[in-house]
Each structure stands twice: as C-alpha cells, then as structure tokens.
Design a protein that fits this description.
With 201 residues, the protein is an alpha/beta fold. It has one domain: Spore Coat Polysaccharide Biosynthesis Protein SpsA, Chain A, CATH 3.90.550.10. Helix content is 26%, strand content 25%. It is built from six helices and nine strands, in the order βαβαβαββαβββαβα. It is globular and about 40 Å long.
Length: 201
C-alpha cells in the first residue's frame, strides 16, 4: 500500500459527500481510505455509507467512535490502522481535485520523507507550497512518510495539535518535496469549523 488517506469527520453532513466524491472514484489498489467519524449527531455517517455503496471500492474503512473524543483522537485512530507507506490527511468538510491521488502516486518517492502541498481556499485565494503563510501548520497540507512518524497527535490539546504533530515528527534532516499544483481545497470560514475557530477566520 503506497498511500493511506485519513479523513476525520464530525457533523459534516453538508460537506462529506463532496469530500468523498472527490476521492473514492479515483482510488487505485495502491491507496486506502480510512474514515473516522467522531460520534457525529447528524446524518454524516449515513452519507458516508451511501458514498461507499455507490463507489463499491475496496480498501475503504469506516470507523465510528462511540464517544466524541476530538479530531486528534480520530486522526490517531486512523494512523493506528493505516497500512500505507505515506499518510495524507483530508478533513471531512474539505475536498481535493480529481487528480489528487494520481499526482501523489507519481510524486511519492523513497528519497522524500514528506511533501508540502499547494492549496486553495474556497473563496479562490491560493497558497503555493514554496510561499505558504506562517500560520500554515496544518497536516492536510502535508503528506508524510509513515516511518518518520514517531509521536502521535496530542489528544490533550484543543489548539495547536497540528503544529505540534508536525514539529514532533519532522526535522531539518528530513527530505522535503514540493507539489506546486493546487489539489487541496480548504473550506474557509465554515460555521463551527475547528480550524476556523482556532485561526479566527
């Protein structure tokens, strides 16, 4: 397995279908998707199951947490089950381009320990991997070789867990690749979004 895509979800019924439709139809045998629902109280899980049935794709795992434990717990759960050489994170309220998987598979080479991705806000504002803003310490803008991950997400943190995870696992010794094509679309200013609340956006 070359790539594991981990998707944490919580009450994203309005967005999860678009998210999964941007990923599941483009999977290959080298890719697995691990969806971790953190005890959603809306119809998120129903929509996830419908998307999985429509695509009839293997290598999809849905995990439903019996209790809400936060995005760090959900990502850690996904990491524990991941079989891929590289790990990518996609938030359940965001989506990716149709060539996200194909470009990643072409780019992932053993000489690189992690990649930085270019991305775009849904208002059209683009951020390129070689000139990202200082606040960009998000795991969804990185693809990381699983073998260099030695520290899991800190489940005690309610803010800054992405930055801590990246700082704990990526050092100057690690070799970085850059993917200039914009493939990740971040849903900016979504009501009740964890990221929006943290960044004041």
């Amino acid at each position: 397995m070359k790539l594991s895509i981990i998707i944490p979800c919580y009450n994203v019924q309005d967005y999860i279908t678009e998210c999964l439709n941007s990923i599941l139809p483009y999977m290959t045998d080298e890719v697995e998707v691990i969806i971790v629902d953190d005890c959603s109280t809306d119809r998120t899980v129903n929509f996830i199951r419908m998307c999985i049935m429509r695509n009839l794709t293997k290598n999809i795992t849905l995990i439903v947490n019996p209790k809400n434990k936060g995005v760090s717990y959900a990502r850690n759960f996904g990491l524990k089950h991941a079989k891929g050489e590289y790990i990518a994170f996609v938030d359940g309220d965001d989506y990716v381009s149709k060539n996200y998987i194909s470009i990643l598979l072409l780019s992932l080479r053993p000489r690189f320990d992690y990649f930085i991705l270019s991305w775009q806000k849904t208002n059209g504002e683009k951020f390129y991997c070689r000139s990202l803003p200082n606040w960009n310490k998000t795991v969804w803008s990185r693809v990381i070789k699983k073998s260099i991950i030695t520290v899991m997400f800190d489940e005690s943190l309610s803010w800054g867990e992405d930055a801590k995870f990246l700082n704990d696992n990526i050092t100057r010794k690690n070799r970085c690749g850059f993917i200039d094509e914009t493939m990740y679309f971040y849903r900016w200013k979504r009501p009740n979004s964890i990221t929006s609340a943290k960044l004041g956006r």
